[in-house]
Design brief:
It is built from no helices and eleven strands. The chain has 119 residues and is mainly beta. Strand 4 and strand 5 form a beta hairpin.
Length: 119
């Protein structure tokens, strides 16, 4: 089993930054791939960023490239999403997720943390 707990959301003005954290526990083999998703009101959940423990590779959706950075701590227990130059369209509930491999489904989810960006 894997447990994921997000924190760090909040209400900020456009242009500000927030650092989201995801504290992970449980079998490391089940969380080889870590991701951040977000879901805005009335919209589908979308993948924002991915980190692979297998090779350290990262992926970002185009709308956040150059503004968001996914990273981890050396202990492999926390995944961060640094969000800079926030825009009102970044407003959403942000979720941390984990899976065991690139081919598997996202099996583990956190409860989410709200990010609200005012204009």
């Amino acid at each position: 089993q894997v447990q994921l707990v997000e924190s760090g959301g909040g209400l900020v003005q456009a242009g500000a930054s927030l650092t989201l954290s995801c504290a992970a526990s449980g079998h490391t083999s089940s969380r080889k791939i870590m991701g951040w998703f977000r879901q805005a009101p009335g919209k589908d959940r979308e993948l924002v960023a991915v980190f692979s423990w297998n090779d350290g590779s990262t992926w970002y959706r185009d709308s956040v490239k150059g503004r968001f950075t996914i990273s981890t701590d050396n202990a492999k227990n926390t995944v961060f999403l640094q969000t800079n130059s926030l825009k009102p369209e970044d407003t959403a509930v942000y979720y941390c997720a984990a899976k065991s491999s690139a081919a598997s489904t996202w099996d583990y989810w956190g409860q989410g943390t709200q990010v609200t960006v005012s204009s």
